[in-house]
Amino acid sequence: MNNSVSNTARLIGAGLRALLVLTVICGVIYPLAVTGITQALFSDKANGSEIKDKSGQVVGSSLIGQTYNLPKQNPDDPEEAAKPDLKWFQPRPSNGLGSNSVNTQYSLILSGATNKAGDSGAIDGKCTKDAEEGTLCAQVIAAKDAVVTDNSTATYKVKPQDVPADAVTSSGSGLDPAISPAYAELQIHRVAEQNHLDVQQVEKLVKDHTTGRTLGFMGEPRVNVLELNTALKALTQS
Q1: What is the CA radius of gyration of the chain?
Q2: How far apart are CA 172 and CA 65, in angstroms?
Q3: Each residue of 161-218: pLDDT tens digit?
Q4: What are phi and psi of 226, to 5 degrees?
Q5: Could you count the other beta carbons within 10 Å of the beta carbon of residue 237?
Q6: Can you give the pTM of this predicted structure?
Q7: Cα 183 to the chain's mean position, in Å?
Q8: Can you tell me the distance from the alpha carbon of 131 to that of 112, in angstroms, rounded to the nearest whole number?
Q9: Rounded Cα distance, 183 and 139, in Å
Q10: Which helix (H) or strand (E) holds 179?
Q11: Closest Cα partner for 127 from 168, 81, 170, 176?
């Protein structure tokens, strides 16, 4: 009987000591070591890849896209469609769902694609203006018409065939922070006109914020919209 109690107490004691040691190692030492290493070597990424304006204020993350829309005429009307603020470079269309009271610039609580098939609304394999409302074809056609209208100026006319795919379709996550150089270049004249800047100034801004393929061969060239608009804001305020 005494041996049984003694063995039980010994096992309990060993278990408690193991719990204490593992708690210190896994719950204190390891997290502090990882945090220290990441802060020393990758502080920007470890802190969320934050982007700051020239005053030092955090305006967002380079990993998550933002919308640039005009304030709604009636904020309480959920059916009112948001209109883009044309003085800014526009991102890809977003299919984020819901609302977020923390980051009102990008209103969502979930992310995802449309889940519509590539031929949704297609007639005889082609997207036409007769596509049924709510289908992917109808969305793409409406988006293309808007891109052509919004980005055409008195001295620069956008051709429908020049509108790149990322201007009218969302990414798989709906949170894509970047656009193609082609879409950024298509917006240059409109942004220059809206901000009373020279086209050459805005062209240089886009060129300076164009990132090439990772390691020279992975992915595609891209332009981070938040970084570009942050630089644009600094330029207009200088």
Answers
A1: 26
A2: 13
A3: 999 999 998 877 778 899 999 999 999 999 999 999 999 999 999 999 999 998 888 9
A4: -65, -45
A5: 9
A6: 0.80
A7: 15
A8: 23
A9: 18
A10: strand 178-179
A11: 168
